[in-house]
């Protein structure tokens, strides 16, 4: 009988299937050195843990992963994020960071830049514990955090097979924004100031933490616009380091450096005073106090995360109008080539304050288009300094005052190429007690024609 069986079944291939028991375990764990987070009001210990953190704080989550599988296996551990209102069982995860089966640490696509910036890390802190630290929290980091563990074996051909995967919810995280706590108010609601008087405005800023949040710095300043809804230009601000920065309109070559201060007051708490020592007509407008919040990154760069503006307050000024007129004329109607051509500019000013005048001379040449603004020949600054340019013919130019109200331009050795329409432009400047300058008005004269005749013509 045995012989017959052997003849009927000459070769039997015996296939044995071994079932590897599921010995993978993944559990939430407390951080090795916990930083006490803010817990949501009324929350009780439950799964998942409910955490409320401020923007810019650090989120630390730890999970414990172990395997008792008798075979040699490799583990992968991944921290993932899902939407706060999603089902914990079916919601796909957005990977935050993971350690792969080959021990490489990789961040998810959305978090890769933050990993490179050292705001995100993952480390093994013991035989079983894996800790993720997501620093410099942002509002979009809110959600449900999971830990996913995988168990892997390597086949003889070198390929990898995942034999088990388990997932656990670590915490539901709410991120409170810095913007939600900031507020600013300005007073008084309306100010009427005289030219040259000091202008003072108050700003009360709330929400600047008495115990500052990590990595958060603040800046406070004032903006002014010509209308309540217009785009504001910077008056002054205190940068995050406390240094005063003036707007371009308050420190430049034309106006000088105006005396503007912005300082924090001892009381009431959160109050800041803007003071412009000598108000000018250009200071009229709608003012807003602005508070900015920045996050300072590991590379010391600042990223703006919030700003808030107060309601507008109005600054008005008692009118001190300046009436300015300029008239150009020719002392001699007939000018011959080679002579000195003379153009006069009479200036009249009506003002209640001392005025300094700046004057310039221009020519529009016959071959220039109608949109041309002309060629500058000479100018005299408000300090009385002359700046002479080149004439079209290349000849000499001189300027002086023929009388207290009459200015003179001379073209020496006039040539045919000097033919054109000449005019003067005048600007009135007012100097204030803080030694800054204000452009009070400007005027452009009529045109006069210079035509050099040929002798005998």
Sum this structure up briefly.
3% of the residues lie in helices and 50% in strands. The chain folds into three domains: 24-176, Sandwich (Immunoglobulin-like); 179-317, Immunoglobulin-like, CATH 2.60.40.10; 323-453, Immunoglobulin-like, CATH 2.60.40.
CATH fold naming of the largest domain: Immunoglobulin-like
State the helix count.
2
How many structural domains are formed by the residues? 3
Distance, first to last CA? 149 Å
Q: What's the CATH architecture name of the largest domain?
A: Sandwich
Note poorly predicted spans: 32-46
What is the overall pLDDT average?
Answer: 86
Beta percentage is: over 45%
Name of the level-1 CATH class of the largest domain: Mainly Beta
Write out the CATH superfamily name of the largest domain. Answer: Immunoglobulins
- State the helical fraction: under 10%
Number of strands: 35
- Name the shape in a single word: elongated
The biggest beta sheet reads: 7 strands, mixed
What's the Cα radius of gyration? 40 Å
Note the main attributes of this structure.
3 domains; Immunoglobulin superfamily member 8; mainly beta; disulfide bond; seven-stranded mixed sheet; 50% strand; 3% helix; Immunoglobulin-like; 457 residues; Ig-like_dom; six-stranded mixed sheet
Provide a descriptive summary of the structure in words.
With 457 residues, the protein is mainly β. It has three domains: 24-176, Sandwich (Immunoglobulin-like), CATH 2.60.40.10; 179-317, Immunoglobulin-like (Sandwich), CATH 2.60.40.10; 323-453, Sandwich (Immunoglobulin-like), CATH 2.60.40. It is built from two helices and 35 strands. It has helices spanning 2-8, 112-116; strands at residues 24-29, 49-54, 59-67, 74-82, 94-99, 105-107, 120-124, 129-134, 143-154, 160-176, 183-187, 190-193, 199-206, 216-225, 233-238, 244-246, 251-252, 256-257, 260-264, 271-276, 285-296, 302-309, 313-317, 323-329, 335-336, 341-350, 356-364, 375-380, 386-388, 397-403, 406-411, 420-431, 437-444, 448-450, 452-453. Strands 12, 14, 15, 16, 21, 22 and 23 form a seven-stranded mixed beta sheet that branches. A six-stranded mixed beta sheet has the order 2-10-9-4-5-6, with no helix packed on it. Strands 27, 28, 29, 32, 33 and 34 form a six-stranded antiparallel beta sheet that branches. A hairpin with a 5-residue loop joins strand 28 (375-380) and strand 29 (386-388). Residues 32-46 have low confidence and may be disordered.
């Amino acid at each position: 009988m045995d012989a017959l069986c052997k003849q009927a079944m000459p070769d039997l291939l015996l296939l044995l299937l071994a079932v590897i028991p599921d010995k993978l375990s993944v559990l939430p764990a407390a951080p090795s050195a916990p930083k006490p987070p803010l817990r949501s009001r009324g929350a009780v210990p439950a799964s998942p843990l409910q955490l409320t953190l401020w923007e810019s704080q650090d989120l630390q989550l730890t999970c414990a992963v172990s395997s008792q599988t008798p075979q040699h296996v490799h583990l992968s551990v991944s921290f993932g994020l899902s939407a706060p209102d999603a089902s914990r069982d079916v919601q796909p995860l957005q990977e935050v960071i993971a350690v792969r089966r080959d021990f490489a640490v990789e961040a998810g696509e959305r978090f890769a830049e933050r990993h490179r910036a050292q705001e995100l890390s993952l480390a093994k802190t013991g035989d079983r514990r894996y800790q993720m630290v997501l620093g410099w929290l942002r509002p979009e980091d809110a959600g449900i955090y999971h830990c996913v563990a995988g168990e892997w074996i390597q086949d003889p051909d070198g390929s990898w097979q995942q034999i088990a995967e388990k997932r656990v919810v670590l915490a539901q995280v709410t991120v409170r924004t810095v913007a939600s706590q900031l507020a600013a108010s300005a007073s008084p609601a309306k100010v009427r100031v005289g030219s040259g008087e000091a202008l003072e405005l108050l700003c009360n800023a709330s929400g600047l933490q008495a115990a500052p949040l990590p990595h958060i710095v603040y800046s406070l300043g004032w903006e002014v616009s010509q209308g309540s809804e217009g785009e504001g230009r910077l008056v002054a601000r205190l940068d995050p380091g406390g240094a005063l920065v003036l707007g371009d309109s308050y420190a430049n070559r034309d106006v000088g450096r105006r005396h503007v201060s912005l300082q924090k007051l001892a009381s009431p708490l959160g109050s800041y005073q803007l003071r412009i020592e000598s108000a000018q007509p250009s200071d009229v407008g709608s003012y807003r106090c602005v508070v900015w919040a920045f996050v300072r990154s590991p590379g010391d760069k600042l990223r703006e995360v919030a700003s808030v503006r107060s309601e507008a307050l109005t600054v008005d000024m008692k009118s001190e109008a300046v009436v300015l007129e300029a008239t150009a004329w020719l002392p001699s109607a007939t000018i011959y080539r080679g002579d000195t051509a003379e153009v006069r500019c009479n200036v009249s000013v009506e003002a209640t304050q001392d005025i300094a005048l700046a004057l310039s001379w221009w020519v529009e040449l016959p071959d220039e288009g109608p949109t041309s603004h002309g060629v500058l020949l000479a100018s005299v600054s408000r300090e009385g300094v002359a700046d002479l340019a080149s004439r079209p013919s290349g000849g000499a130019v001189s300027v002086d005052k023929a009388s207290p109200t009459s200015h003179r331009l001379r073209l020496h050795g006039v040539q045919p190429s000097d033919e054109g329409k000449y005019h003067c432009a005048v600007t009135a400047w007012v100097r204030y007690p803080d030694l800054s300058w204000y452009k009070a008005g400007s005027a452009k004269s009529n045109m006069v024609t210079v035509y050099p005749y040929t002798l005998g013509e």
